[in-house]
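INFO  loader      accepted 1 record
INFO  loader      residues=1599
INFO  predictor   begin
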Amino acid sequence: MPVTAFFDIETDRSGNKILDIGSILPNGSTFHKNNVGDFAKFTEKAHFICGHNILQHDLPCLQKYLGVADWGFNKAIDTLLLSPLLFPKNPYHHLLKDDKLQNEELNNPVNDSLKASNLFDDEVMAFQKLDEELKEIFYTLLYKTTGFNNFFKYLGYAPATDEGRTVEIIKKRFLHKICDKSDISSFVHTSPVAFAYALALLNCNDRNSITPPWVLKNYPEVERLFFLMTNSPCITGCGYCRQALDPYIALNKHFGFSQFRMYGGEPLQEKAVKAAINGKSILAVFPTGGGKSLTFQVPALMSGENAKALTVVISPLQSLMKDQVDNLEKKNITEAVAINGLLDPIERSKAIERIENGFASLLYISPESLRSVTIERLLLKRKIARFVIDEAHCFSAWGQDFRVDYLYIGEFIKNLQETKNLEDPIPVSCFTATAKQKVIEDIGDYFRAKLNLTLEVFSANASRTNLHYRVYRKENEEEKYNQLRAIIESKNCPTIVYVSRTRRANQLAKRLDDDGFSAKPYHGKMEKEEKSANQNAFMTGEVNIMVATSAFGMGVDKSDVGSVVHYDISDSLENYVQEAGRAGRDETINADCFVLFNEEDLDKHFILLNQTKISSKEINQIWKAIKELTKTKEKLSNSALEIARKAGWDDGIKEIETRVYTAIAALEDAGYLQRGQNNPSLFASSILSTNAQEAINKINASGKFSPDEKVQAVRIIKKLFSKKSKRLSTEEAAESRVDYISDQLGIVKGQVIRVIQLMREEKILADAKDLNAFIKKTESVNRSLSITEAFRKLEDQLLSCLQEGEATYHLKEIIENCLQGGLKDVTVNKLKTIINFWSIKNWIKRQSLEYAGNHIRIALLIDKKTFREKQETRHLLARRITEYLYKKSAEISTDDKQEDVLIEFSVQELKEMIESEQGMFTVKASIDDIEDSLFYLSRIGAITIEGGFLVSYNRLTINRLEKNNRIQYKENDYEKLRQFYQQKVQQIHIVGEYAKRMIRNYNEALQFVDDYFRLNYSSFLSKYFPGSRQDEIKRTLTPEKFIKLFGSLSPAQLHIINDSANQYIVVAAGPGSGKTRVLVHKLASLLLAEDVKHEQLLMLTFSRAAATEFKKRLMELIGNAAAFIEIKTFHSYCFDLLGRIGSLSEVGNVIKTVVEKIRTGEIETSRITKTVLVVDEAQDMNPDEYELVKGLMEQNEEMRVILVGDDDQNIYGFRGADAANMQKLITDKEAKKYELVENYRSKKNIVDFANQWAATISRRLKTTPSYPVKQENGIIQVTAYSSKNVAVPLSNQIKQAELTGSTCVLTKTNEEASLVAGMLTQMGIAAKLIQSNDGFNLANLVEFRYFTAIVNNSGDNSIIPDDDWQSAKQQLQQQILSSDKKEMVNAVINAFEGVNPARKYKSDWNTFLTESKLEDFITIDSEMIYVSTIHKAKGKEFNNIFLELKNFSPDTDKEKRELYVAITRAKSTLQIHYSGKYLRSFSADNLIYSEDNDPYPEPKQIILHLTHRDVYLGYFEFVQHRISALFSGATLTIMEQGLCNQKQEPVVKYANQFNEVLKGYFEKGFRIAKAKVNFMVYWKDEDKQKEVIVVLPRLLLIR
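INFO  predictor   done
INFO  writer      dumping tokens
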């Protein structure tokens, strides 16, 4: 018997260094030492040397050491090569059970030599049991090949044979098992080893046995030969092919059908199946319910059975994958699995196992799964029959649902083919339900370019003869609902009602149910259980009506649906045809498809498209973020949310992660970066225990593992040991990556990481420095420590604010509490960082409230005591870790150019450091505690940490390819996406056109649909949208909305609206020029026609009234989409950025503070990342406000800025306002200037008069005089008085005048206004003084305090329920029944309701009150004469203006502008009463100039409105009980030093300074005749920290 030496060597990871050698001889002699020369001597007398995988691994290492190139090959027998040949039915590594391994030492080459000996004995026995034919076949194919040849020599087996005889044996033996036309002779000659493996597998005749992965890798020909023999029908049709490759036999066997489906009399399904069986790549366009699934399932099941191959189905819809797998299982077909995000770890593990073991021949995955290293490795282990791509229109920018992640599919298939070394390309089958010609071309072009594949197209007609269509035009919601009920009642059959919004699905289903119809909702945001329950209820007939979004119906096979109603029309004809096609699946029944059409539904689709699309600017923002994150490294590992935040995106944006993925896919497609696999770089490697049993004993003895963790640890360690030992059975590299272990064992990734850390702690696994910290050389440890300390204090404060149980919190209020507690620089972003950290650690449950960025709902999940203990430990550890890492960084020497120092460390290293430092404050730290602290430090930005356990939070790995920081994502890179979005716009127009045609002419509409899918797209557009209609369908507006937006604007206004090219625009808008209208329409245009998302648009105003007016008008124009635009005052926006509620006392420096924080990077980027900034009344910007604009411009280089204002109306110079800031934008940024000079307000002569006056103002922005649209003249009277008492004749004039329309008297000062108002009242004329609330905000008026207290107590919710709001209003009306502020109070509430129709937030109401001014809520009544200062009247207009200019000398531009403002308030009549001569030289048509030299006495009546300065505030604390019965307008009685209530109890004492004022009046003969309550206001005594109600009276003085 020949002597065989069995051996094994151990090498380091690189494979270059030999660590140990072991060998045994048949006589029991053993060799075990690391000496290659001695090993050569030990084996020199052996006839053969044998081991496992020695040809690829052991012998090349030994040859290198010995310096002999072919040492050992002449005697080598490799058991690895023989295993698949002799054990094809059961891959041999399954014989190496875990229990055999447990007591064996790991990496002991003597043990491994013994295993190789045992395996070799098994292989010899297996060969001897083979029949002579098979032995001869194997011998003929393999006797010349190294590794096999010596096996036959050892056996002494050398039959007399030749290739010709062997070919005949094979043909005869495998008759009817392979195609008769297989070129056996060629296979024998060109690929003998691969052919032998293929025949071994064929011979075992086991459905589920598959070729081992290492064989597929090293002998890729096996795959090709297998397909050629078993899965490629011959032309003539041999016995095998007629049986095994007959589609009809397979159809009947698997699905019980005898015929394939016909489309319009064409056997397209059969043709597509046959093309796939013949290995062709195909594109099938089959309608919904048209059997497209069966078209790929039949060939897939055939390939699985015949070639033991896997078909991979890529689908974007997880729910559809599950439905298809479930439907196959109902037909007893169990060869399909889906791997997606809906599976739990155990299910995922089982699915992977079924693929690996060959039990599955159909795998459903999503495009995103192609990024998974597990999926890639899985597909490398199997023969791939074909890739099936569902929803293939996603490849085309011309399709209705282009997805950039689809563009990676071709790259993945190409890489897979290259890795597998395949000669023949893997074929693909593409499926879509609807596709126009251009989409078909695009899909074909894609696969031709990427994979050199030509797709054979099978396209069915989109029309279905058993469906009948009807469109009803409905004007409003109620009409729609009544029509829906009528349809349901008349049809009385299973019905699907499609809506476009999830909220509407719920509401409509409930309303139908309430009305006695059996209805359920269905949409993508529902819980999985409810979704399944509702679907099942509909499928079984328990429920007759399904109200659903488009998420319902894909893969749902209900044949008796008799009607489909589109309550909201679809957003494309493709989607409409698909959804309508869910009716009448049973072609023997006639079904109806209805559309309830309203033009506004199309506008909603346009708005939704605009809000969900991603622009090239946004892609550039993501690219900029990636460049920032890769400043010091080429690769990044961050979550999509982290990248979004870095890009400045608001994390409240809907589907934010999807948008990040889309941006990254677009950047990858353009070659800027490459997305890596989603694989954490954390490994469970370097096993320290000598064998598995030793490791298991340590685990069981440890007190650190929980019972569950012990079970998991034992499973993991067994897996690691079996992986190490697998080198004895396969050539596959041992895989110890965390996500791979997680997938294989079905353990959640985070738990795998934790168990690995515990095994490192117990010295079962070696510690690995798998964490990296990046520390800037320029930063000291103090910076990180100060960040940590600041967050510690903030965390303590936040925890103290939290209640036990669940509650809603207003983040701004928490910030106010923090500031009062002495904390500085507290922001909403910092609070969110802490809350997010707590939530991830599962210490709280958090829920962000929709459309309420500053509200959050929190529930504590652990008690506060435990919470505080965890906090204290974490903060102490964070401090020690920070100091330790900085100390390490100081010890590392680096290149001077290097900004960051990279420190490698591990959790275990930190644990040992903390345990060794026994200082004053010792702390017992678990692995969990240290991980918490590291994660915390990373989250708060104290130290940049990557790798290790943190990988489970970072899903994206990105390699940056474009290194140049200056390179930006270009417009031509965006072409595919631009094309897609342009298509989406056209598709909305096209589906709308279909609806209109269906209303007019049934057959014409059907022809329209047919042509859409049949004709070349440009031909279709030319036919149905000729001439200017081609431009019409490029707009993101319906023709009706376009006319509403732009139809009534002047050419000058349209120029501004249509300007999307200029980044900077200044609009100098004259009085009455429709400035507000232009701005509202410009905002609407930005949103609807210029791709600006609502969160990217910021409008700043100078008053809450202006913000409210813009919001209200915008809502009237475009609906609820306007509700989400940020229109704020400068101060409100700044307080918002600081996360502050804001108050009058803090207004002064808030803008300056914010500008500083923007420039130092302290403001959350997402709050200041804007695409467009619009400033109203820009002439009123002071230096601080303009600096804010500049600060925002600096942060957003591409931001468009639109300043609108009238420099001639800059009358707020006293607060630093300067129209020169508008000019600066023109000068510094070359802003485009527009002038709006058409005056729609005033009559011709008033405009001419105003122009003459404006010409006296110097340094004007406008160069063109205003032009009157109204060409008729009004009345202008100018009267010059020699008397100083102008108010008297002015009042007489008003009394005598025949006035029509609104009237206002304008004065320079508040005192003059009060005087005129008093005189008019004395004359019996109804007059109202336009007052302001200087010195207090409206929120402090008692009327509003009463109302606010009611709404604030309306439940534990940030939103005020409608019922509570209405109830509060009713209670308020009772309370203010007698108040003379009732009209104003109701006006404020109505204004708030106008801009908050859907949801009313408590915080919004409080802010609204705080920012509003009394003068903003004057309801103009033509029967009332209004009296106001010029400043308060700015922005208002009246038919008649009476202007009192007593002691007014317009010598400066400031005064000239004031007069200009006053003049331009007049529409028809302008009367100027002045003392002076400066207006004498002015002329205009119908102008009457007169002089009045009569002496006029001083007025006999004066009204004084007292402010806080005029009353003794400290007195009110002691008279609160006397004030309780008072109200605004209540009469007060007069006493010497103040005022009394009706009971003669003193309630008001005058301040000393006011007593002096009164004394002056008394000396002139005045006395107080009447006193009333003007305002009742809450006032806080800051010294005493006490709040009281203050009475501010108005006094009537007469002589």
